[in-house]
Amino acid sequence: MEQRKLVLFIASTLDGYIATKDHNLDWLFNVEGEGDNGISEFYNTIDTIIMGRTTYDWIMAYEDVFPYKDKKCYIFSRTPKEDTEYVSFVNKDVASFTRELKCKSGKNIWIMGGSELISYFIKEKLIDEIIVTLAPVLLGSGIPLFRQNDFQTLLKLTSTNRFNQFVELHYEVIK
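The structure assignment produced for this chain is given below.
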């Protein structure tokens, strides 16, 4: 059986930030896109979402209802927390848990964020594809998409899409 792919699908400013220092995403909604900017097409390729606790807390602060009820969602958290109807909190070895998840049958797995988790997954060679939608915005500072690291990762560009002012870059991670 072929392993499921772990796919990073995320938006970033042109200068490489996924949010301001205070986790604000207003810049993302001030850019003129096209349709849903490819989100629904990607969303149909996954059945599982993983994210960090900060990302989850941000979603819950800004959404009236958990938006991913139809997907299996795992939240990595250093602080144990009780599962909800829609999410399971994971407080164990991230790499081992993710490797096991990739071996289970199903569609692809979406790593939603944040940057600490993304960097860890890249270092552990767990991410298979990276899809970054670039917004024509320069923040100058904020939360970087990729943190400084001591390793190199080679990528192969597989496709590009334009959604009005957004450009989507789709890469395969070379392992």
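Interim note for the steering committee: Strands lie at 6-13, 17-19, 46-52, 72-76, 87-90, 108-113, 129-135, 143-144, 154-163, 166-174. The first helix runs from residue 26 to 29.
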